[in-house]
Amino acid sequence: MNDLLQFLSFSDPNVRFVTIGTMILGATAAMVGSFSFLRKKALVGDAIAHSILPGVCLAFMLSGSKDPLVLIVGAFITGWLSLIIIDGISRTTKLKNDAAIGIVLSVFFGFGILLLTSIQQSGNAAQSGLDKFLFGKAASLTQYDILVFSSIGIVLILVLLLFYKEFKLISFNPDYAKVIGLPVKFLEFILATITVLAVAVGIQAVGVVLMAALLITPASGARFWTHRLGTMIFIAMVFGAISGFFGSFISYVAPSMPTGPWVVMCLSFLTIGSIWFAPKRGMLAKYRVQHQNQQKILKENVLKLFYHIGEKENDFHAERSIEQLLKTRDLRPTELKKGLHLLKSENTVRNKDDKWLITAKGLNEAIRIIRLHRLWEMYLNQRLKLEPDHVHNDAEAIEHIITPEIERQLEKELNYPTKDPHQSIIPYIKE
Amino acid sequence: MDAFWIILSSSLIAVTCSLLGCYLVLRKMAMIGDAISHAVLPGIVIAYLISGSREALPMLIGAAIIGVFTTVLIELFYKKAKLQIDASIGITFTWLFAIGIILISLFAGQVDLDQDCVLYGEIAYVPLDLWITDAGVNMGPRTVWISASLLILILSFIIIGYKGLFLTTFNEEFAKALGIAVGFWHYSLMSAVSLTTVISFESVGAILVVAFLIVPASAAYLITHKLKEMLILSAIFSVLSSIGGYYLAAYINGSIAGAIASVAGILFLFCWLISMYRKRNNTSRLILNSTS
Amino acid sequence: MEVALETHNLTVSYNRRPVLWNIDFKIPVGQITGIIGPNGSGKTTLLKAIMGLVKPSSGYCKLFDQDLKQVRERISYVPQRESVDWDFPASVMDIVLMGRYKSSNLFKRINQSDRDIAVEALEKVNMLEFSNRQISQLSGGQQQRVFIARSLAQGADLYIMDEPFVGVDAATEEAILNLLTEMKNQGKTVIVVHHDLQTAKDYFDWIVLLNTRLVAVGPKDDIFREDLLQEAYGGKLNVLSKVGDLIKEKGFSVRERK
Ligand SMILES: Nc1ncnc2c1ncn2[C@@H]1O[C@H](COP(=O)(O)OP(=O)(O)OP(=O)(O)O)[C@@H](O)[C@H]1O
Ligand SMILES: [Mg+2]
Asked: Does B135 reside within a domain?
């Protein structure tokens, strides 16, 4: 707890630097990743990240310096090369894109590991620290590093904002973009370059191995909150920034720990949380809707019971016992009771002890459903040419779905029928 | 002698991987293979923590379970949450892999594993870990025996299941229409991949397994039109990569597994060039034919 | 009439939205039946439902008055040609031999009689000389012939083919048609998905007109009427698609309880 307070107080200027820096990196990657996600190129980011390792090693071997600008040049070259090769393999051979990605990813990474281990073995004094590129180590970044990477990140964000409309178009509708004369090839080139750079700076926080998550995971989670691109990107960036913050906190309290896995854990939780809890699109929201549907169906079915008995006995307002209601339809007693109580709270049925009767409001509702049922049966019979004995089951389900608008359309198409295929009367609500 | 043991064990592992890799490539599941190889990590670490050793059996069971678990998790994201497939794969494996790394760093004392091992294994130490029987007979490195058994197991799977794998890989719908349990073949293959990944893990690490799985298989696919030839060629490529990789690593004093992946990449490049050359010849012949 | 295929109130949905609504028809034995409808009308889906490849949300199919499981060996399915990757490393013979695979012999070796049957099937489609050719080197029409040979090798009684005439030249089209007629003469039943109205009348004895719902079914002369064709090709039913959308949006199902 003390750690947290101390960390949050930002009293240590270095902590402040690292924290703000990694947050920017996380947000940049999330923003760029949103486009990779939409263009269904999420795994290409993984390949770029892995391919950057040999670039960094080569740059170090050739220059002997660990200056971030030098390393980024190496990263940029091999990152881009990996894109070209993936594209080349899937264009000129019968191998599919996924194999191309896998080949490039693993060969480049293997080569990178070969170089890295060789550098380590050679006992080069300056080498210590290159391995932070594997899993990330935010705390070991110097203020100069942070300055360089964050500036690149901010430039990338600005470029993305500048071309926002164009990128949106080539992500959603590349053909249309071509038709209206956008330089699609050029834009794709810019976007690819931005992606490579974002990956190159992002690996400072999470390392090459888990970099893919920083691109893909925030966008995937944000997707569940909205369908608007702008909002989605914003939420993804917030997720990226939160995870960057969390990563640098871990680095602060446990300096020996790699940052990357913690950043990814944080991201995964945000995203899995979104998948479950996001309003409307989340799984829970979907289950809730389904539960509500089930209740609606139950209530409407119970109301129908009253109508059916009333129709048979020509008396809609008499009291009915549970047994009588159960006889009419295959319904479990517990369900029936649950339905009755739900309806009671809506004032559509009333009870005297064990005797239940339908209210005027309830009867109107029952008539509506019976009506929809019989209209739909009629529709199936006339339009889908189903035999009268084949239409009932379908109508049992659809009666709960039809909206007033569709109801009117049905009436009109069927020319205001009065009887259903079984010659039962289609009731109307009497005003 | 050390060189011999290292090359032998890496060849055995690489051949096993590439045989399975042929099916992954043909089923367009290369990245699922990548995902599984990452995702087995937490399984391995947990098995270590529970059994307290590198005991093979709990680890294998854990591996098979987590391999299937990974594919199920990916399917959950994909089918239930309706997330696109590439994102489902990406989220799943990075998350599981992160858990694995965190477990390793948290239990650094208890687990005889480190991050380097995760990345590129310890194939150079193979000759040190000898199998000495109770009678005191030196049977050679343990890894060689384990990977040889694995190879035999996978080879039998492929030979016995040849028709099933062939049919379900080429045309799953037709197989289903014949009443064949497509799911059984899918999950058997996934279990075989996770099993292989776990056993290869000690020697080559979790990440470079991917290179072993798909690079030789892809290279073979480019230069042949027959499944049996593809399987054999991929095996040959893996052995060549293992030999070449060993000497390359020795030459520049780096990781053997990394070097093997690099040599496999070079072999792939050759096959790619051959296939392009052939294609060009074919097209020019076609043009000649049509003009003459 | 002896019934080869019966669908009963068959409704099939993808992501809840029904793409086939309450399909209800019977097809006689010993005839060539064409399933006809515009693009996206659910023809492929119907075949998949018949072959148990997609699960219906309601209703069922019967083949020769039995469940698919009981008569599986009497049924042969020819998927759409584009549904497989023709770059797969296999020879023509390998593919045709797949017709001899069954779940009961999956672990046994292929024997000589299987080979003989495959050779015979290849002969019938005029592809014997290509039996060692790699499938990646076939033309579209040849690929289709291979698929039909594979199906013939099954020695079934009912053949269900998805668009066998798409992307083949006139000669192949005629060859396939002759083959179908020959099969019919041997008492086999053939069901073919087709979307060319022009040729449908010449090719089939029976017609199923489909557009999300069943428009008409019967002997071809009864079906080739201006009004029915107009109905099938005149677009989807407005109310039906709206209800379909609602089902998907609101998370309902087409049956009350699963
Ligand atoms: N796997 C799927 N997931 C979601 N929707 C699907 C799927 N397969 C088909 N559909 C939709 O179901 C409808 C019917 O498709 P189907 O392939 O059965 O049509 P079809 O009549 O065979 O068309 P075509 O003539 O183009 O082959 C189409 O609207 C299609 O978009
Ligand atoms: Mg179709």
From this structure: no
